[in-house]
Amino acid sequence: MLEIKVEKNGGDFSFIQEAIDAVPYEESAVIRIGEGIFNEKLFCEKKDITFVGAGIDKTVIDFDDYANEIMEDGSKRGTFRSYTAFLGGKRVTVRDMTIRNSAGDGRVVGQAVAVYADADVCLFENVEMNGCQDTLFCAPLPRAERQKNGFMGPRVMTERRLTKQYYKNCIITGDVDFIFGGADAVFDDCRIVCNDRMHGSNRMLDVMGAAGSRVAKVGAGNGGASGAGQGVAGAGKLDKDQIDVTERLVNGYVTAACGLSSDLGFVFRNCTVTGAEGCEEGSVFLGRPWREEARTVFINCVCDKSIAPERFSGWGGITKDEPQTFYGEFGTRLVDGQLVDLSSKNTWVKDVDEAMAAELSKRADEVVKACTA
Q1: Which domains occur in the chain, in start order?
Q2: pTM recorded for the entire structure
């Protein structure tokens, strides 16, 4: 097995992408990444590769591409070209680091993916993933796009294949649909935090200024002001797919699954799911269906009072009927240890009993076994 060191000074390479490019496809490799902030946009498509950092708080991979950014040809970058790290191929393992997209508030910049996990088998352990809208994409894409060029990116032309993904002791932050996709993905002992979009810092204003500056530069290369204006499309107003303010204040949606009814979907076990400090009570939803057959279940998790009483939202509205989905919880407790009252959950959210939770957990264990073998 190849062993490669990436260090700011003194390693085999000083850039992570150079190390990735040096690995022959058929070789298994471990890339050890030293301390520091690596401002890189990564693309990895190898048979079997492992990335090991020096620690969550020591190794940081950071980039700031975003969906509303205008490309050289005048088109928008879009969600699936905004990633900080695209991790494809057969098997990918990532440990002990932070990967973030620092583009900022999705109400200005649109979607901004930190991790695009697309390998057949993915394992993330002790990894922090930070962003706002669409932080972690657990591939595959849905079977069909809803708008032209909506899937523009590395997998737009490829056949959809079900991936297996395992997240252990990870920290994932974001706000709108920030864990999304069609994978069979298991999250064990993770900390999931929804940003406070409404209070705290002046991030909204800061991001608007930064995004406008960045897009103006891109727009200047495409004929000036018209390009700049497009780049912050929607600045100051809310996208209809981001947040519905006609019903009540919403800080975000933790998940947006798009798998098929025959898939496992997303399973969260023994995770802590909360709003960031300042999030209003009832302003965070555990998920909403990106496609009609979405499946997401929380088993023996802990949450705070920021999680909405309806638990899961419909795609076009909080109480919109979603009868084809499989959404549910079992054994959810508040941080003080009390069982959560689910009597106000949406009617289409499943009643998950102990037997069903055990069966789903058994299926989840099969995914874990495949990812850790």
Answers
A1: 2-372 (2.160.20.10)
A2: 0.91
